[in-house]
Design brief:
single chain, 4 helices, binds zinc ion
């Protein structure tokens, strides 16, 4: 399986990173070795001094698709969850400055904790799913799929023009504002509509 991630999909986050509003979705990949499941802890790596959390809604792909039209895109995912797109911001900034790919800043081992997934049918309206992240019991990020620049359908359709989607693939759909650093001892908990789906202790 593969993990695809959308960058710059919430206006407020683009602002906080001084990035430019994209006219098309920007996406990148993380290796499957970056996954952390079952609420296992996250161990701070020794190659970065600035690891940021980014909470994101995650789609799970349920069938093979290529060149998927937007009007059919919703049938290509069946589950929605939350994940954290951990980012070594210091490494990413260095790579960006040099115009180099920044895979190491987001694709390192354990950079992608994912929580429990919910069936799509559990939602009245997938275009209005609220979610948030708490750090040590305080809300640090909060948004809704309603705030996304590119919808789930647009994302799936766009990615599948270039890369075939397969069953089990995951799509991180971008992070809202409020990203920030973590230190040893922090506890992160991610929620979809008040249901806690992911817990992650920083060690
Ligand atoms: Zn992200």
């Amino acid at each position: 399986m593969k993990i695809l991630c959308i960058g710059r999909n919430y206006k407020d986050h683009i602002k906080e990173l001084n990035s430019v509003l994209p006219s098309e979705p920007v996406f990148f990949m993380k290796p499957d070795t970056s996954l952390v499941t079952r609420n296992r802890p996250f161990y701070l790596p020794d190659f970065s001094n600035e690891i940021h959390y980014e909470v994101e809604l995650v789609l799970k792909i349920c069938k093979v698709g290529k060149n998927i039209q937007q009007k059919f895109a919703s049938s290509y995912y069946d589950e929605i969850g939350v994940g954290i797109d951990f980012t070594a911001r210091d490494l990413q900034t260095k790579c960006k400055e040099k115009g180099l790919p920044w895979l190491i800043s987001k694709g390192f081992d354990n950079a992608s904790p994912i929580g429990k997934f919910l069936n799509k049918s559990a939602f009245q309206d997938v275009h209005n799913i609220s979610f948030h992240l708490e750090k040590n019991g305080q809300i640090v990020q909060q948004s809704s799929s309603h705030e996304m620049i590119f919808s789930f359908e647009e994302i799936i359709s766009y990615i599948s023009r270039f890369i075939t989607l397969k069953m089990g693939d995951m799509i991180f759909t971008g992070t809202p504002s409020g990203v920030g650093p973590i230190v040893i001892g922090d506890r992160l908990e991610a929620f979809i509509e008040n249901q806690k789906l992911l817990g992650c202790s920083v060690k």
